[in-house]
Amino acid sequence: TRVSVPAMLEVGGNGDLDCSWEEDTDHMYSIKWYQGAHEFYRYTPTFRNPIQVFPLPTLDVDLEKSWGGSVRITNVSLAAEGPFHCEVSADGPTFHTASDSASLTVVDLPDEEPAIKGVRSYYPPGSWVDITCISLRSKPPPILAFTINKQPVSPGWLEPQFDQTDDEGLTTSTLRLRFSLRQRLLEDGELRVECVSEIPGIYLYTTQYVLSTSPPYQASVTGTGAARAGTRPWHSSLVLFLLLLLSLVASKSLL
């Protein structure tokens, strides 16, 4: 009468499968669960050991939390994605069989938070900003977006998102942003740029950088900066010496 599986699980996660039935004039003989074409669980209530598990490389079964038509699956892999099929068989004399299926989606979240590459230490007003947001290895790929000072950027400043899938089925995504650093974009000489990475319903992460139009401060090496505490510049010492000399000459003339 009903087959229920989680709509979505993360890689390595767990979830519950449930298969319901009505006996009517027949009596249930066995319930079987399949992942794709492969049987991995069977419940036969008339057997001494009513539960049988057939190992699969794509998932494990938690026997302590499985009984009848309800099965707890654990350690799911990407390969566990797809249809799960429940089959209920009646005892004799009819041996009637009924079945139904439902699909499971397995997601693998990005390896780490999105990174913004290409940021310089400072930007003179009017210069070009050319940065790229990168999200590493996920399934499905996230939707990437940029904001400037919390506002969506002009579509004309963006290149289309580029997704590259590796041999393991995981996708690395990049989004490039290019624009001129105009005065109207600045707030107190700064601009806040964010990259937002989202897999709707399960993942959302934001990385922020502050772009500055002020060059980083560097102490002068050859200049005539302020004297260190406890010392006097040489010209100050010369002035004191001349004043002392004049005082001595004046005192002699009075004598």
From TrEMBL:
Q: Which InterPro entries match?
A: Ig-like_dom, Ig-like_dom_sf, Ig-like_fold
Q: Where is the Ig-like domain?
A: 1-105
Q: Which Gene3D superfamilies match?
A: Immunoglobulins
> What protein name is recorded for this chain?
Ig-like domain-containing protein
Query: What's the source species for this entry?
Result: Cherax quadricarinatus
